[in-house]
Amino acid sequence: MTLRNQAIDHFLTRAGWGDAARRDLAGDASFRRYERVEKPDGRTAVLMDAPPPKENIRPFIGVARHLTRIGLSAPAILAPDVEDGLMLIEDLGDDSFNRVLEVDPSMTVHLYEAAVDALLALRMAPAPGRTRFADGTEHRVRPYDAAAFAAGPAVLLDWHAKVLRLDLEPDACAAYASIWADLWRALPREKPVLMLRDYHADNLLWLPGRKGVARVGLLDFQDATLGPAAYDLIALVEDARRDVDPAFADELKARYAAGAARLDPAFDGAGFEMACAITAAQRNSRIAGVFVRLWKRDGKARYLDFLPRVWRLLERDLRHPALANLRAWYDHYMPGEDLRAGVRRLAA
Question: What is the pTM (predicted TM-score) of this model?
Answer without folding.
Answer: 0.93
